[in-house]
């Protein structure tokens, strides 16, 4: 494969920056910070995990409702980058605010966390849609997978620095509390995310778009309605989205609630942070491997592989007892989490009409985000009913089975989908 272009590299480096949010805020340090705050307030472990799940569900519901509409409006010239910039700023600023909330204010933490989720997830809608602007169909699997790989590598740097600050604070080698060390990690995350967004803002442009017209908002709703009426025209695309709806639900839920689950099992916060760090390191080469194997065996077959690995994760999670068991679980997740997400993104990007990419990635978002409502709710309700977090994780296997069955029926993206309008390329 030829060297990556400036546009491809700038696009991929947003993953390098934004992934710091994914591991430090979504997955590792913030959930532990929140869990400690909730415990201090007298909230039980099962209930605090449930409240986190409900919060994620609320945030993703809001974005799911906005996704297709904002995406359709963003298909007009220059709008894609404007929406992208807005959600990045929302995410970065709200992440900074997390650092200034007293650790005993667990409810306020969840409120501000909601805005960080909106900023991160919202920016990713438009970031994903930019894939059609920065590369060709033939290079999409490789570029998308390399983006995830860079994300895993890049996120380990601020994560390692943050872990170091927290460990030194716990050992009394820094004159700050563990809570203050976690808050410093939130500031590091915001700075890393913001700085590495700059190449994307400078070098990536919207190549495919719809020409501006009078009453753009009204016409965007009309185009959205037309797409929904002509859903049969996009049968392969929406069938893939239905499969994606189920299997990505399990993937996202396992990622966002893994530390809370590990905490409920009695695994120390230090061990959890080390496990998550190693998971990021291991996930990077596996993401690239998935991209290369997709070129040889097809993206669809590698999606099958990823789903099967996650089914094994759900089954194994039910029998977890020791920290070593959690290590094995984490390595299984590391082997497939980047690959399944990267290939889902590139598989979908090959199916969509390029000049309507924002509209269709809005649907990609709404399917993914509605799934992200169902997964945390499923874990939360099951954990509360059974009093056992392991049962909640095991219940996710149903979603992977359904997703796999539907994905088998999706045709490969060899025949391009007809565009709604004639594309404008600059």
UniProtKB/TrEMBL annotation:
Q: Which GO terms describe its cellular component?
A: plasma membrane
What membrane topology is given?
Multi-pass membrane protein
What GO terms are given for molecular function? transmembrane transporter activity
Q: Does the keyword Transmembrane helix apply?
A: yes
Keyword Membrane assigned to the entry: answer is yes
A Pfam family hit: ATG22
Q: Which UniProt keywords apply?
A: Membrane, Transmembrane, Transmembrane helix, Transport
Where is the chain membrane-spanning? 12-34, 54-76, 83-101, 107-127, 148-169, 181-201, 236-260, 272-290, 302-320, 360-383, 389-408
Q: Which residues form a coiled coil?
A: none
* CDD domains noted in UniProt: MFS_YxiO_like
InterPro entries assigned: Atg22-like, ATG22/LtaA_families, MFS_dom, MFS_trans_sf
Q: Where is the Major facilitator superfamily (MFS) profile domain?
A: 236-426
Q: Where in the cell is it found?
A: Cell membrane
UniProt-recorded name of the protein: MFS transporter
